[in-house]
Design brief:
homodimer; 347 residues; alpha/beta; 434 Repressor (Amino-terminal Domain); Rossmann fold; 13 helices; DNA-binding
DNA sequence: TGCACTTGCTTAAACGATTAAGCTTGGCGC
DNA sequence: GCGCCAAGCTTAATCGTTTAAGCAAGTGCA
């Protein structure tokens, strides 16, 4: 009734060579005691037959599925492609598959998604939470990728340092009044980035912070940010906490006839797909997602192979912060002399 | 040695209730002959113990893993979040998990990724190819999501009709000279979209097509598209074949001091994340990814449950084209009267 | 009463891999 | 020559589920 797996299995190889399945298994895994000659013979025959081990059989016996789960509460996040790519790459290098779970931004659906992954028998999970979400209901090792200030965080980009890079860059260019543009003031990532920027300001520099979500609560979604007014008030640099907000700022400024980087500078975060494509191309800060993913995955696989010490589900890694890299493009330039003078007068 | 699955299994429930495992299995699946009273009792006890069936055991017995693979040769594609979300949603509604595979744009790595999925024992795969790629090496049902003109395509958005929607919209606004902006002229999707636009032009309208990849081969990556020159030559509308190109066009025009939609109109495709956020927000065409995913997944699951008729691996669906929806925002407006007059003179 | 048939359960055999334990054989030391 | 040990293989149990087959008891009918 059920279509049998067509490929050859251990027992077919065994009978075909006149040996036992155990010997074949040992030869292929290199574990037991099998003579070199026989190992060679078995491996050759297995390759010839195109043998692929059944994950189901292996999983049933070993209790390991060889699959990791990837949970992103906000899968519509434009960062998702990079994260998924990096995790998948790191996982498959470690011999694991990646099962995705989505909760469409819904917090309650997140635990449901996690449960689905557990039911599917994942050996571990990588979770990228949006807000501070408690990850507790999972009965397998969990690696959290958020930001260093999040309790229980496993590994993440050094968002704080990224912010300092931005601040140093803008300071070098002579900017004095900086508007930080964020989306949500409850986001740990955005707070760390903003904090990094503020901590990197030189004496004589000042910043204000604009949270778009707050603004939209009053003025409606998709409203103008009122950046032209900010320019009139002497802001010469707009440091967005994500490239999406940087794009929003850039196009609004352009629409108002304000030149970037001639009149003001705009910077972003994350080096998203469009950063290099827009005019002017966006100065931004890139996170080393490949390294982060590698650390997260190896922390998981380490824990999985130990499997004796069950000291809580959250795993930890040696390196908790991975440096971010400043990418200087066209959207940032020297502060406009006119603004600079008015700034000089202010002192 | 191996950490046993902690949860209860069939036999634990069975011994605990003093019945056989087969009865428990039958009661939970509702398949065999079990009295209603016992079914009730078994289900209650299973729920109480928090029983979750072992996918490994089930997979081994049935030969089905309950997992679908998702292959995207170009996972960095900004469409990926929507696709992954839609597929995951449709799959989990059908009781399947989704395993992702990436090939980082590499064609040879694609077959490797497909093989990894097959080795993991997926019951079927959804493949979204970038160019015309032959999907043959898979030993399981495959659904292809590309475009109607691709041979072997299972289901896709009606890109041609989407192009006609754009053309009709621009015609209504009085535009007569339209520049179609695409990335790659070998992409089936982009060709269908461009063809749709051209076929929807009214008498008296004309179009040219600009392929960015060709331009960049000569002028270098990230070069200007020279749209200001096109405006001078009388183009009043720029119809990009993807929102990414639309964004590139929009920002370049703004940088040149050309007003959108005051002087010229810009439209895109796909309704990507930034379309509603930029100023002016992008008029675009959205594909109904949820419906497409649902059709693709149910085509797969149908084939999987038949499992007798092995008439090739590529599955087909009744509905092959899913309509696209025009989203009118701020980036498209009436053709500039000045341009219109010069156009009138041309007649 | 005897036969067929249904109901409700159990027994047991798979699926494919891993692995502990057992069994020969041969070599080596004393 | 005897015992011991290692090498090289086999035997057999096991993971958890599904499902065909079997079996006892009850029901309906002639």
């Amino acid at each position: 009734m059920v279509s049998q797996r067509p490929g050859p299995n251990l027992s077919r190889i065994a009978t075909s060579l006149g040996v036992s399945v155990a010997t074949v298994s040992n030869a292929l895994s290199g574990k037991g005691r099998v003579s070199d000659a026989l190992i060679e013979k078995i491996r050759a025959h297995a390759a010839e037959l195109g043998y692929v081990p059944s994950q189901a059989g292996r999983a049933l016996r070993t209790g390991r599925s060889g699959v990791l789960g990837l949970v992103l509460p906000d899968i519509a996040n434009p960062l998702f492609p990079k994260i998924a790519q990096a995790i998948e790459s790191a996982a498959s290098a470690a011999g694991y598959g990646v099962l995705i779970a989505d909760s469409r931004g819904d917090i309650t659906a997140q635990t449901e998604a996690i449960n689905r992954l557990v039911e599917r028998g994942v050996d571990g999970m990588v979770v990228v939470p949006r807000r501070a979400t408690r990850i507790s209901a999972a009965s397998c090792p969990v690696a959290v990728i958020d930001t260093a200030s999040t309790p229980g965080n496993t590994v993440a980009a050094d968002h704080w340092q990224g912010g300092r890079e931005i601040a140093a860059h803008l300071a070098d260019l002579g900017h004095r009044r900086i508007l930080i543009i964020g989306n949500n003031h409850e986001s740990n990532v955005q707070n760390d980035r903003a904090g990094g920027i503020r901590s990197g300001l030189q004496p004589g520099m000042q910043s204000e912070t604009l949270w778009i979500e707050r603004l939209e609560n009053e003025a409606g979604a998709g409203c103008r940010l009122g950046l032209a007014e900010k320019v009139r008030r002497g802001f010469t640099a707009f440091a967005a906490l994500s490239d999406l907000q940087a794009l929003r700022a850039l196009t609004e400024l352009q629409q108002e006839g304000i030149s970037v980087p001639g009149d003001v500078s705009v910077t972003g975060f994350d080096d998203l797909i469009w950063s290099s494509v827009v005019t002017p191309s966006l100065t931004t800060v890139r996170m080393d997602m490949d390294t982060i993913a590698e650390i997260a995955v190896s922390a998981l696989t380490d824990r999985i192979s130990e499997s004796g010490t069950r000291e809580g589900v959250l795993v930890t890694a040696e390196t908790e912060r991975v440096p971010m890299q400043l990418i200087i493009r066209q959207s940032s330039g020297p502060a406009n002399p006119a603004q600079k003078t008015s700034e000089m007068e202010n002192r």
